[in-house]
Write a structure and sequence with these properties.
By secondary structure, this protein is an alpha/beta fold. The chain has helices at residues 33-43, 56-67, 107-122, 140-152, 165-169, 181-188, 195-207, 247-260, 265-280, 290-297; strands spanning 3-7, 12-20, 23-31, 47-55, 72-78, 84-88, 95-100, 126-130, 157-160, 176-180, 212-217, 220-226, 232-235, 301-304. The longest helix has 16 residues, at 107-122.
């Protein structure tokens, strides 16, 4: 079975309140970027190994929820508690009611997390690196060191990071960097619209070390820049009603599973776009059936980038 190591340091306890007729419906799930990516990687037939920090009361609840998912856990116990958020959707809109974040891990806890991730990655077919939450919780250098150690041992590395964590990873030459347009604007510290500015910003990422760059733009076509090949657009099916939260993480989960299985990058990206579309049609995050994602992937087109 293809194996994907996932550096997703901060799983979250997610509580959502929705309306069901005249009653309230409460959903309790494990959430966070690494969890959502892992769920979709498992849906596509890979064995995800989620390397993460778990502790405190919220961690006790999360442990049971994570154990119920089709993923392998490599947890580092922490003295601090995991983060949690409560969302109210009873009126059809997403309203954040409460949120807590995890404290920074101790040096020993962080060492255990990173060492465990490297060990898991060297036994896997690909490593996917996700942000901490909050983003500045871990030292930026950790991301670059992790990517460099894993790539030095011949394992592919894909990253879904924002700056400055992204900047730290680039010298290691990640095989794929996925980010959205506002994260790219943060990286270049300037506008990325119109299309020529978007392309120029993506080329800066490539020149800084990323072997392939994928820039998502919500429901609009994504920019894919693969080495010195001409830039291309990844055009998803047009969907008007849905929820965008978690679509990028779902996309990366499918891409990671496809790459771990030895599929070409273009096929992986097309499948990932189908998985993101499937997530858009679901209320849950990192969800959607593989068959649905593959059917939607049949409506994804790869086109030449305008003006290139």
């Amino acid at each position: 079975m293809p194996r994907v190591a996932v550096f997703g340091p901060n799983p979250l306890l997610s509580i959502t309140i929705e309306a069901r007729g005249d009653a309230d419906d409460v959903h309790v799930h494990a959430g966070g970027q690494g969890v959502w990516l892992s769920r979709m990687a498992a849906e596509f037939g890979a064995e995800p190994v989620l390397c993460c920090l778990v502790g405190g009361e919220t961690g006790t609840v999360l442990g049971g929820l994570l154990a119920g998912l089709p993923i392998t856990l490599r947890t580092t116990r922490t003295a601090g508690a995991n983060g949690c958020y409560v969302v109210d959707r009873r009126d059809g809109e997403r309203r954040l009611v409460a949120q807590t974040t995890a404290p920074a891990p101790s040096r020993h806890e962080l060492d255990d997390l990173v060492a465990g991730t490297v060990a898991a990655a060297l036994q896997s077919d690909v490593l996917a690196i996700c942000n901490a939450f909050p983003g500045d919780l871990l030292p930026d250098a950790i991301y670059g060191e992790l990517a460099a150690d894993v790539r030095a041992n011949g394992r592919p590395v894909i990253a879904d990071l924002s700056s400055p964590r992204l900047d730290a990873v680039l010298p290691a030459g990640p095989d794929l960097v996925k980010l959205n347009d506002w994260e790219l604007a943060e990286y270049v510290q300037g506008p990325v619209d119109p299309p020529d500015l978007l392309l120029a910003a993506a080329r800066r990422l490539r020149d800084a070390g990323a072997r392939s760059v994928l820039v998502t733009r919500g429901g609009e076509p994504a920019l894919w820049l693969d080495g010195d090949a001409p830039p291309r657009l990844v055009v998803p099916p047009r969907l008007e009603r849905g929820m965008r939260e978690g679509c990028g993480d779902t996309m990366m989960g499918a891409i990671a599973a496809q790459l771990a299985a030895g599929r070409p990058l273009e096929d992986a990206i097309v499948t990932g776009a189908g998985a993101g579309a499937a997530n858009f049609l679901h209320a849950g995050l990192g969800t959607g059936a593989r068959a649905t994602a593959e059917e939607l992937a049949g409506h994804v087109r790869i086109e030449a980038y305008p003006g290139a």
